[in-house]
Design goal:
Helix 8 links the parallel strand 9 and strand 10. This protein has a 4-stranded parallel β-sheet, sandwiched between helices. A 4-stranded parallel β-sheet has the order 10-9-11-12. Helix 6 packs antiparallel against helix 7. By secondary structure, the protein is an alpha/beta fold. It starts with a helix and ends with a helix. It is built from 13 helices and 12 strands. It folds into 2 domains: 142 residues, Rossmann fold; 116 residues, 3-Layer(aba) Sandwich (Rossmann fold). Helices cover 35% and strands 14% of the residues.
Length: 329
């Protein structure tokens, strides 16, 4: 689902639609150690206590695999390690691939289109029109959702005794560390999650180093939606606002509280630079009254890959770099 669709669905919703992850260390077979009882026992203790990088864990006999609150504050119990997962969020799907757990995905939404390998996974419909009955026919043992799935649909899933865990997109770029960490636990891939977080933190620091605090920030407008349906952009309390700031720009909507922006305000701000999804750029630049904006007249309207900016992910780094390169020219 695009931000445009979500903005029109709920002006207060910050949930939207990733980069290369470090490789995951795997457990190796220790059978040959069984002949040496002491060494085998010592190895197990070492792996259990010190090798968190491997990420695999086995709960004590009789214990649930996971118990904890999700993003909605709901207490969720997952009896055993999930093997058949349905993802109802493009961002969650992408992170699942990054954590090398794509083999567990048995169903995804029509909007889950990255990475390309998602094409081989069963589709379960759109986020706003979920066929819960068809979804349950895939016999999932866990359903992962963002914040768009209705409470009614969640209730239907839970009636079928399937755990439903919500991982919402947050309001800041660095909130992704929490999202990755939570999914690392749920997917039993803490080691891969730790590596991904460390890599992304390093990438973020590199882009922060590009900022020049001595120069005045250029004003930037990101087009979420335009035309007869209304104008939409990213408000201050959104990770897209963070992306613009990290790139060295000033979001003209930083003081707005919702995704809706009045045309009068847009023209008052008359941004220095405009960024828009590649597929929408030409139509925007041809449409009146946007043709009267100085950025349009000066050719400072730049296309951007929606996957880089419309969901919270490590690919946000690419959006930051692109915006920085254009406003620094």
């Amino acid at each position: 689902m695009t931000i445009k669709q979500l903005a029109q669905y709920s002006a207060n919703d910050t949930s939207i639609r990733w980069g290369k992850a470090a490789s995951l260390f795997k457990w190796y077979n220790c059978n040959f150690m069984k002949r040496i009882a002491f060494f085998f026992t010592f190895s197990l203790l070492f792996l259990a206590c010190g090798n968190r990088g491997a990420g695999d864990r086995t709960p004590a006999a009789g214990a649930n695999f996971f118990e904890g609150k999700d993003a909605y504050g709901r207490e969720v119990v997952i009896p055993s390690e999930p093997q058949r997962i349905i993802s109802l969020s493009p961002a969650i799907t992408e992170i699942t691939f990054l954590l090398h757990s794509e083999d567990k995905l048995v169903g995804i939404t029509d909007f889950c289109d990255y990475p390309p390998e998602t094409s081989r996974i069963q589709r379960v419909g759109t986020l706003l029109n979920i066929n819960v009955e068809s979804l349950l026919k895939l016999q999932p043992d866990l359903i992962l959702i963002g914040s768009v799935v209705s409470k009614k649909d969640v209730a239907k899933m839970e009636e079928a005794q399937v755990p439903v865990y919500s991982v919402k997109a947050e309001g800041h770029v660095e909130d992704i560390f929490t999202t990755i960490g939570k999914l690392g636990v749920i997917l039993n891939k803490q080691g891969a999650a730790d590596s991904l977080i460390a890599s992304y933190k390093s990438d973020l620091q590199q882009v922060k180093n590009l900022q020049d605090s001595t120069t005045e920030r250029k004003s930037v407008y990101y087009v979420v939606g335009f035309g007869d349906a209304g104008d939409y952009t990213a408000p201050g309390k959104s990770f897209i606002n963070d992306i613009i700031q990290l790139a060295g720009g000033r979001n003209i909507a930083e003081q707005l509280q919702t995704w809706s922006i009045s045309r009068e305000f847009l023209f008052q701000q008359d941004p220095d630079y405009i960024f828009i999804r590649a597929e929408d750029r030409d139509a925007f630049c041809r449409t009146y009254p946007y043709t009267k904006l100085n950025a349009v007249k000066a050719g400072r309207v730049y296309p951007i890959n929606s996957g880089w900016i419309d969901q919270l992910s490590p690919r946000n780094i690419e959006a930051i770099k692109l915006i920085h390169s254009k406003i620094s020219e």
